[in-house]
């Protein structure tokens, strides 16, 4: 008997805003906090909490700096984060296939 | 993000990925810059004043020219006019183009909020910039001229493959390094061979940008450079055209392709901003 696709779902990654953060971060070298906030339509507090969870899980790295006098926070995905995202996407596709097969 | 079902979630993630990819695209600026730098080389390739029956030879060129072109230089459409000024121009232009491209992507990241990695572009460009200056002359002098090219070439292939496998990298890395070494060798032989550095850089950009338009124009540019590199062999002085056109054709044609690619990328970016500000 094959394992049910939900077994491949990681609770830290599965939350849809965190999936969105990882997806965008995986597409670039690094992403700025403000870009994530506007693209995902999240409040600063909410986004900050999701980023902290992903950073503590070792899936994201956070770099704080300045652009002139303005503070900027940059986020980049780690190798572990890429693997977790790929596993989550595979689990979602497997779930969809299973659902389509009925 | 609103979807909770797997299909809706996957669709939304695909949309987010496409948006981030579109937002980080910035290839139009390097395309336009390199088009301008190629056109800037044209004056260095115009045939000099020459009374009937005159000819040019590399024999009278300074030692530095022979260091930069250890196996000589081939023909080009307009004829053979070896010049150290061409080498100096290209060295400065390619260095400026490389630094400006890396700076552009960092500057753009600060404005847009999403940064394209220029690591691969920087690695391949620096490799094909540095190798013709040091690697090709040293390898030619110490290795190829003494062993003979068939033996020396086999030794280089074995050395690169062994070093790649020992450093636990994939075999395709060895193939890529050998191709870049070949490009660096051609660069010293082909007149305006520096276009090959731009080909490598532009293909590197297409790889990191993951844009269809950028990839199409990168390959069109590569095909045009391949054509102008081969053209002097097959079409030398045919069809009959004014000398200035021959002298500039193998630079202006690739520059035109890059310029059209850059303008297309700029228009596409502008259209995207209009649709989703």
From TrEMBL, chain A:
One Pfam family hit: HTH_34
InterPro entries: WH-like_DNA-bd_sf (IPR036388), WH_DNA-bd_dom (IPR027395), WH_DNA-bd_sf (IPR036390)
Domain Winged helix DNA-binding, residue spans: 18-95
SUPFAM superfamilies, sorted: Winged helix' DNA-binding domain
PANTHER family documented for this protein: BSL7504 PROTEIN (PTHR37318:SF1)
Protein name: Helix-turn-helix domain-containing protein
Automatic annotation (TrEMBL), chain B:
Keyword entries, A-Z: Membrane, Transmembrane, Transmembrane helix
Domain of life: Bacteria
Keyword Flavoprotein: no
Keyword Transmembrane: yes
Residue ranges of the TM segments: 27-46, 88-107, 119-140, 146-166, 171-187, 193-209, 216-236, 251-271
Protein name: Uncharacterized protein
């Amino acid at each position: 008997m094959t394992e049910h696709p939900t077994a491949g779902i990681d609770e830290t990654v599965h939350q849809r805003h965190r999936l969105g953060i990882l997806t965008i971060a995986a597409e670039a070298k690094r992403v700025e906090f403000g870009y994530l906030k506007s693209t995902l339509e999240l409040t600063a507090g909410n986004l900050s909490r999701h980023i902290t969870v992903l950073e503590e899980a070792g899936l994201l790295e956070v770099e704080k700096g300045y652009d002139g006098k303005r503070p900027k926070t940059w986020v980049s995905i780690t190798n572990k984060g890429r693997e977790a995202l790929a596993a989550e996407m595979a689990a979602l596709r497997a779930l969809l296939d299973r659902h389509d097969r009925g | 993000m609103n979807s909770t079902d797997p299909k809706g979630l996957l669709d939304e993630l695909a949309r987010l990925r496409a948006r981030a990819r579109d937002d980080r695209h910035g290839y139009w600026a390097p395309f336009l810059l390199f088009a301008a730098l190629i056109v800037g080389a044209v004056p260095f390739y115009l045939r000099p004043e020459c009374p009937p029956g005159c000819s040019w030879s590399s024999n009278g060129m300074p030692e530095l020219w022979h260091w930069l072109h250890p196996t000589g230089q081939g023909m080009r459409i307009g004829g053979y006019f070896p010049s150290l000024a061409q080498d100096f121009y290209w060295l400065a232009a390619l260095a400026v183009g490389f630094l400006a491209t890396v700076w552009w992507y960092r500057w753009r990241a600060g404005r847009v909020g999403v940064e394209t990695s220029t690591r691969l572009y920087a690695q391949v460009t620096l490799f094909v910039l540095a190798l013709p200056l040091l690697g090709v002359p040293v390898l030619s002098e110490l290795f190829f001229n003494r062993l003979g090219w068939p033996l020396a070439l086999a030794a280089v292939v074995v050395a690169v493959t062994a070093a790649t496998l020992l450093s636990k990298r994939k075999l395709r890395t060895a193939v890529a390094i050998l191709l870049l070494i070949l490009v660096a060798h051609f660069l010293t032989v082909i007149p305006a061979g520096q276009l090959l550095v731009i080909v490598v850089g532009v293909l590197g950009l297409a790889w990191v940008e993951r844009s269809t338009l950028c990839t199409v124009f990168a390959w069109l540019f590569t095909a045009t450079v391949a054509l102008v590199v081969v053209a002097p062999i097959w079409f030398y002085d045919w069809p009959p055209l004014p000398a200035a056109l021959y002298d500039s054709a193998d630079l202006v044609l690739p520059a035109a392709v890059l310029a059209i690619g850059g303008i297309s990328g700029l228009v596409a970016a502008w259209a995207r901003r209009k649709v989703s500000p």
